[in-house]
């Protein structure tokens, strides 16, 4: 298991009245070498050391802030969901291409919101505003929530809550495997768990401090066997020597292990590697030795719908990726839905 063991825990004022805060502290108290900082104001940044972005990033990734979600106005989460569910933000992982590197910028710390009752009640209010439509909540818009789950039980609470609400759905994506505590949650088919997977070469090279390929597959089997709708995000897809053999091996291994009698089609989303200039600049600062292929001359520049451009693989390569994955998925999986290959 790859549970998050922080170097320091920063407790915001007044959080100790919440059960989740007591549980988190109770768990970590027995662990050696964890600094516990009680804030008297809500200014935490001076407690995270580091002279430059490189150090602040690494220290931030080892900092857990226990706080409450004060504003209960949820962010929208188009196009995959209606709202973000703000349980956790940040992630202990250090994936070189993580979207959080640009999104959270110099605030890479992990922050957990202990007032989960307020958050879930607010979600119910939002869903009531949209009756009789289904309202979808996304639990991983700014985090990977799984490494904290064993001592927050936030996902468990959210899964059972949405399980009882007729017109709601919940979804999240993970690169981790600490899912055992979710096996017996009464999800009622309302929570979709997606696993972000890749070849072992890609994971070992770029996805530091995350679960291995086989651990993620094993976790996905547990969730599928527990009746959850599940999906796989294969992203980013890289072109390298043996890429076809290795992606085939990944999909073959998955198809061999997945139970055949699933109640829901398994979804697939395939995204080829792309980057923006802003992301490249951040990556060069926090991973100066990165071997990520980000040579602009080898890529096609494509304007995105939000006004900034991305460097993508050439049209021919993307076509090859589409053909390859379409053929593999068609041959290996029966009960599936290919959402997109881009
Ligand atoms: Fe980012 Fe996901 Fe990697 Fe965490 S596991 S660092 S959220 S890409």
From TrEMBL:
Q: Where is the Radical SAM core domain?
A: 77-310
Q: What class of enzyme is it?
A: lyase
Key word Lyase present: yes
Q: Which UniProt keywords apply?
A: Lyase
**What GO annotations for molecular function exist for this entry?**
4 iron, 4 sulfur cluster binding; DNA photolyase activity; S-adenosyl-L-methionine binding
UniProt keyword annotation of Lyase present: yes
In short, the EC number is 4.1.99.14
Residues in a coiled coil are: none
| Residues spanning the membrane | none
Q: Name one GO cellular component term.
A: endospore-forming forespore
Q: By its UniProt entry, which InterPro entries does this protein fall under?
A: rSAM (IPR007197), SPL (IPR049539), SPL_Clostridia (IPR034559), SPL_firmicutes (IPR023897)
Q: Which domain of life is it from?
A: Bacteria
Matching entries from NCBIfam families are given as: photo_TT_lyase
Q: Which PANTHER family match?
A: SPORE PHOTOPRODUCT LYASE, SPORE PHOTOPRODUCT LYASE-RELATED
This protein's name: Spore photoproduct lyase
What organism does the record attribute this protein to?
Answer: Clostridium oryzae
């Amino acid at each position: 298991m790859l549970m998050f063991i922080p170097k320091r825990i920063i407790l915001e004022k007044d959080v100790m009245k919440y059960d989740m805060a007591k549980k988190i502290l109770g768990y970590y108290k027995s662990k050696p070498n964890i600094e516990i900082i009680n804030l008297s104001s809500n200014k935490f940044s001076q407690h995270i050391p580091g002279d430059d972005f490189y150090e602040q990033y690494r220290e931030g990734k080892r900092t857990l802030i226990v706080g409450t979600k004060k504003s209960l106005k949820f962010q929208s989460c188009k196009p995959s969901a209606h709202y973000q569910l703000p349980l956790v933000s940040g992630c202990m992982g250090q994936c070189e291409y993580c979207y959080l590197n640009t999104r959270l910028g110099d605030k890479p710390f992990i922050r957990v919101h202990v007032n989960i009752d307020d958050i879930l009640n607010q979600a119910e209010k939002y869903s009531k505003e949209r009756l009789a439509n289904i309202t979808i909540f996304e639990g991983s818009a700014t985090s990977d929530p799984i490494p904290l789950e064993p001592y927050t039980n936030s996902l468990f609470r959210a899964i059972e809550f949405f399980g009882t609400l007729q017109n709601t759905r919940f979804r999240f994506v993970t690169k981790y495997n600490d899912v055992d505590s979710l096996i017996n949650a009464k999800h009622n088919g309302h929570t979709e768990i997606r696993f972000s997977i890749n070849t072992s070469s890609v994971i070992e090279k770029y996805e530091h401090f995350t679960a291995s390929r086989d651990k993620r597959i094993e976790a996905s089997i547990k969730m599928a066997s527990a009746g959850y709708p599940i999906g796989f995000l294969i992203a980013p897809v890289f072109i390298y020597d043996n890429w076809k053999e290795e992606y085939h091996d990944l999909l073959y291994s998955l198809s061999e292990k997945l139970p055949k009698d699933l109640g829901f089609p398994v979804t697939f989303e395939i995204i080829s590697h792309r980057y923006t200039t802003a992301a490249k600049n951040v990556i060069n600062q926090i991973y100066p030795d990165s071997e990520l292929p980000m040579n602009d001359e080898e890529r096609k520049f494509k304007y995105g719908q939000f006004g900034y451009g991305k460097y993508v693989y050439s049209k021919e390569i993307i076509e090859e990726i589409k053909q390859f994955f379409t053929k593999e998925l068609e041959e290996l999986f029966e009960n599936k839905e290919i959402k997109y290959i881009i």
